[in-house]
Design brief:
By secondary structure, the chain is of the alpha/beta class. It is 27% helix and 26% strand. The protein folds into two domains: 2-136 and 297-328, Alpha-Beta Complex (Quinone Oxidoreductase, Chain A, domain 1); 139-273, Rossmann fold.
């Protein structure tokens, strides 16, 4: 089969790869759409020691099952493969399973014509759901999970909060869109890339701005969600979060500090780490996408999988305005 393989830092190669190996209680999925995630870009640059080349990346997958008990079903995939028996699995927190593995990290991922995955990771979606939209379920679920955690910690309903979302990629934009859908009317979104900023502004979620060139209210936001996760964005988040507010850290760009421990303590700021999502979050996000909660989704850009090497290079240069790029294995070059 054809696959886009991460072969070295800043190098992707479109080539023939072996057919996926299928273990017990596993299925093969014919991939119809697969998104490019920020973590894939991070790995592409050689910044993720967990992803060792040569490796097929990609974990935001929609496809159709071939064979087995789910044969013919259109599905999205939970890329996190949990053990089912550790303390965290037994308490329903599968996303922080002690023994978790993941497609696109510890086993081949979705930048291919086919992928194998345990049946427990298959999440059926409506047969008439646009596979490109369905592939957004993974980043949408990441934002949904962050908002679920924030809602538990916030002193007031999120709809009443003044919210700042940092990062205008798919997770950031989908989080802002869901906040708007849930009734939040005071949303601001920080994004450095001018092309992406222009794309995000068209969705009218609120003020979209460059945090370097424009000022931001100090201690002015009840809720801050950092979908980038770099030192500079953590500094921005701590500057912006209000006393008694909630700061949810989602992105994983680096681990270079940036948290203001004095403000966290004196202002009783709640800081929450949000890692991916549960299967329930994933299914709920897919349902919301199908039902139109996130709007038209016309800001997604698609390319053939065979053109993936060029797409990654252009993303690295900041030349693609779209908040999300989805690759289509069925449209090879």
């Amino acid at each position: 089969m054809k696959a886009l393989v991460y072969t070295a830092p800043n190098e992707m190669t479109f080539r023939d790869e072996p057919e996926p190996q299928v273990g017990a209680s596993e299925s093969v999925v014919e991939i119809q759409a697969v998104g490019v995630c920020g973590s894939d870009m991070h790995a592409y640059q050689g910044h993720d020691p967990r992803r060792v080349p040569p490796l097929v990346l990609g974990h935001e997958v929609c496809g159709r099952v071939s064979g087995g008990p789910f044969d013919g079903r259109r599905v999205i995939l939970n890329p996190l493969i949990s053990c089912g028996y550790c303390h965290y699995c037994r308490t329903g927190r599968f996303n922080i399973c002690s023994n978790r593995t993941m497609i696109g990290m510890t086993r081949p991922g979705g930048y291919a014509e086919r992928v194998s995955i345990p049946d427990q990771c298959l999440v059926p979606v409506p047969d008439d759901m646009n596979p490109v939209h369905a592939a957004l379920s993974e980043p949408a679920a990441t934002g949904l999970h962050a908002l679920v955690l924030a809602g538990r910690a916030s002193a007031r309903p999120l709809s009443e909060c003044r919210a700042l979302v940092i990062g205008g990629g798919s997770v950031g934009l989908l989080t802002a869109l869901l906040l708007r859908h849930q009734g939040c009317r005071r949303i601001e979104l920080a994004e450095r890339n001018v092309l992406r900023r222009e794309s995000v502004a068209k969705e009218e979620v609120g003020r979209v701005f460059d945090p370097v060139d424009e000022t931001i209210d100090e201690s002015g936001f009840d809720l801050v969600i950092d979908c980038v996760g770099g030192r500079v964005t953590r500094v921005l988040a701590m500057h912006a979060v209000a006393p008694g507010g909630v700061f949810v850290h989602v992105g994983l760009m680096d681990n270079e500090g940036g948290l203001d421990a004095r403000k966290m303590t004196l202002a009783e700021v709640t800081v929450i780490g949000a890692y991916t999502y549960t299967t329930a979050d994933l299914a709920a996000a897919a349902d919301k996408l199908y039902g139109g909660a996130y709007g038209s989704l016309d800001w997604v850009e698609t390319h053939p999988l065979g053109d993936g090497a060029r797409v990654f290079a252009e993303l690295l240069k900041g030349n693609i305005a779209a908040p999300k790029v989805v690759l289509l294995p069925s449209e090879q070059v």
